[in-house]
Amino acid sequence: MSAYIHSCFRRSFFSSANMSRKFFVGGNWKMNGSKKVADELLSNLVKGPLDPNVEVLIGVPAIYLDFVKEKAPCNIYVAAQNCYKTEKGAFTGEISPSMLKDIGIDWVILGHSERRQIFQEADTLIAEKVNHALESGLSVVACIGETLEEREAGQTEAVVAKQIKAIKDKICNWQNVVIAYEPVWAIGTGKTASPQQAQDVHKILRKWLADEVNEAVAKTTRIIYGGSVTASNCKELAKECDIDGFLVGGASLKPEFVDIVNANQ
C-alpha cells in the first residue's frame, strides 16, 4: 500500500470511527470571577457565534452556579467544579450531587489535577465521587494526567492507566462520562503537549478502554485534551483523530474561548 493510499485510508477510517463522538469543549473558570465577570463571559458566548456541532460546557465556582445557570443559554451546559461522594452528611464545605441537581446543574468536573495535586485527592476518592455523581444523574468530566516527573520517567502510560482503572472499577456505565486527559506539566504553565504527544496518549486511553471495558465504550467515549489550550494551538490539536475536544482553563476567561469552541471550522 502506498504512503498516500495508506494516509487516505487512515483519515477515512478514523473520521468514520469518530463520527459518533460529538466535539466537546469545556471551559473551567476555576476560582475566578464575579457576577460582573460571569455576565461578561456569558455575553461573549452568546455573541459567539458558536459552532452548533460542538457541545459547550462552563465549569463555574460553586457560589455562582445558580446565578450562571439562570442566565446561560440552553446550548451551554453549566458544570460544578467538584462534588462529594455522598448525598448528605457532616462534610463541612462540600456539596453533593443531589444539591447540584436541585438547582438544575447536570454536569460536574471531577479529578482535576489541581484537586489531585493541591488537595491530595487520591484515585480511589475520585473514582468514588465519579460513581456517586453518575448514580445521582450527573454527567461527569473525569480528569486524568501525569506530572512532568512521571512523563520524564517514562511513566505516562502507567499513570493514566492507573487513574482510569480506578474509575472503571467503580462504575458500570460510561454513557455520561467524558474523559479529560490533562498532563499536569501543561496546566497553567504555557506549555502544551504537541498534537502528536496528546494524540499518542489519547490513542493509548482509547485502546485501554477497548481492552479493559469494551469496544463500544472505546468508540463512543469522548476523550478531550486539557493543558494550556489556546486559540493559536486548538486547530492543530483538533485535527488529531482521538482528540474529541478540550478542557480549557485560562483561555476560557478570554474572548478567544469562542475561537477554541470553533476549532473545527
Give the helix/strand layout.
Layout: H1 3-18, E1 23-28, H2 35-47, E2 54-60, H3 65-71, E3 76-80, H4 97-102, E4 107-110, H5 113-117, H6 123-135, E5 139-144, H7 148-152, H8 156-168, E6 177-181, H9 195-212, H10 215-220, E7 222-225, H11 234-238, E8 245-248, H12 257-261
Parallel strand pairs: 1-2, 1-8, 2-3, 3-4, 4-5, 5-6, 6-7
Helix pairs in contact: 6-8, 8-9
The poorly predicted ranges are 1-16
Distance between the termini: 31 Å
User: Which term fits the overall shape?
Assistant: globular
Order of helix and strand elements from N to C terminus: HEHEHEHEHHEHHEHHEHEH
**Share of β-strand residues:** 15-25%
Fraction in helix? 40-55%
Question: Widest sheet: strand order?
Answer: 7-6-5-4-3-2-1-8
Count every beta strand, where a strand is a DSSP E run of 2 or more residues.
Answer: 8
Radius of gyration: 18 Å
Mean pLDDT: 92
Question: What would you say this structure looks like, in words?
Answer:
The longest helix has 18 residues, at 195-212. It is globular and about 45 Å long. It has 12 helices and 8 strands. The model is unreliable at 1-16 (pLDDT under 50). The chain is of the alpha/beta class. Helix 6 (123-135) packs across helix 8 (156-168) and helix 8 (156-168) packs across helix 9 (195-212).
